[in-house]
Each structure stands twice: as C-alpha cells, then as structure tokens.
C-alpha cells in the first residue's frame, strides 16, 4: 500500500486508485493492512471496517451471532472439485440450527482464543491468582502486587511494561536470558522489572521458585504462553489434524493438498 501511495494522504474509498488496489493483494496479514490504511482514512478501525464492508458489499453476506458447530465432507476427497461441505450452524439468540451444503469452506476462525497453559509443578496447589494473558485487560487489578509474568514474547513484554507502572514488582520468567535489545532496554528502565529463567515449581505459601535458584513470593501469575490451535467443528476424517500445535498437512499454511481448493485456511500461520 505504501509503495502505491507514498503520500501522507491516500485516496478515500471509491476513488479509482482504491478500486485497483484491494488490500488483500498487497500484504500477507490483512489486519496489518487494515491498520496501515485505517489511520489516514478514518479515525477508528471500527469506522474503517464498516466503510470497508459497505464499499465491497460484504455486510449482507455476514451472519452475525451465528456459530458454526460442524463442517464435514459430503463425498470423498477423490471427487476433487465436485466435493461439497455440510455446514451446521446455530443462531445464538433464537437457537435456530441450520444445515446447509456449500461448495467450499474457508476456515478463518483465528488462533488467539484457546489459551495454552504450561505444565508447571505446583500449579494445582498455588492458591493465589493465576490467569492467562487472554483474560488480562488492564494493569489496575495488580496495583502494588508482586506479579510473575511467564513468557517474554510479545504479550509478555507488553503486559510486563504496563504492570511495571502500577505493580510493586514484576518478574518475567523467560526460557532464555538472551533477550531482545528492546526488552533489555525496557528492563533497565524500570527498577521493579526483573528477568528470571523458567519456573522450577510453585509452592502453596505463594513462593515461586525459578530454575536459576532465585525465588519470590508473588500475588499473581500471568501466563503469557500463547495459544493452541483448535478446530473442534471440523471433520475431515483425519485428513487435517492438529498435532504438536500445528495444523496440517497444509501447503503454504493455507491449502490442504487432498482437499483444496474446496477447503482452505486463512491466517493459520502465527505471526504473534
Ligand atoms: C494480544 C495480541 C495483540 C496483537 N497485536 C497485533 C498488532 O498489533 N498488529 C497485527 O497486525 N496483529 C496483531 N495481533 C494479531 C491479530 O489479532 C490476528 O492476526 C488477527 O486477529 C487474525 O485475524 P483472523 O480474522 O484470522 O482471526 P480473529 O481476529 O481471531 O477472528 C476469528 C473470528 O472467527 C470467529 N469464530 C471462531 N470460531 C467460530 C465458529 N465456530 N463459528 C463462527 N465464528 C467463529 C471469532 O468469533 C472471530 O470473530 C495481535 C494478537 C494478539 C492476541
């Protein structure tokens, strides 16, 4: 997008230039594109998305409040292009169940909804607060607390930074002490932000023991340990499996060789 419109004021919807360049053709991540576009065009991403839907006539194609509970094959993979899919969905408000046949299914259910929790000795006996980053919203509930943040990737870094402004101490537990230059700079900026290796075990009295021999008594632990893939609605008779936190087999993270083009996945590859 920037290549096409290097000026600070890109065209609005409806201009010839916009029509020529649909954002999906230009970037690997649609959301990234939306963010790049959103700022100059309208004031908020919500308004941008609404305008995007209107312009491309998408609004009437969306069924809101409808959960897909089952997607299964009709016919066999050998039938190739003629393959069809049965899709069972449920309207959340009135509970109406629908069963329909489609020529193709694109799975775009995201991969940031099924929290992945680590397996740490003592997790079951540690009685204080333990949450996953998925439910973290704001730092205030942790004011004056000693907090252990498990994981030093993007969520762990963001959340630790926020917490450092209100919490008494923030202890980041990382798989390695070889951290990015950015994180290292941040840690040196805050006196209450500390880096440790992995957690060895958790004790009933609130102690958190790290493998490097250090320990703290913490009030909360926030697991910033990522997400697992989950496709509970998809029945491909074993042709697509979630194994070792991978979905496959998929060509280019998108097309299952045996089932494409009638089945495809969007954004299975994790950038975060
Ligand atoms: C903390 C965090 C920060 C991030 N920051 C950035 C960032 O700064 N920049 C960036 O580019 N990306 C960022 N990302 C990544 C970005 O959010 C994802 O890449 C993006 O949301 C993926 O879009 P998606 O449409 O594939 O999935 P989602 O946005 O997860 O959308 C999936 C949709 O499918 C629906 N759904 C799920 N199951 C069903 C079902 N059975 N039936 C019907 N509907 C269903 C869900 O309700 C949801 O609406 C961040 C992610 C996280 C977790």
TrEMBL record:
Pfam families: FMO-like. Keywords: FAD, Flavoprotein, Monooxygenase, NADP, Oxidoreductase. Its cofactor is FAD. It comes from the Eukaryota. SUPFAM superfamilies: FAD/NAD(P)-binding domain. Its EC number is 1.-.-.-. Belongs to the FMO family. This is Flavin-containing monooxygenase.
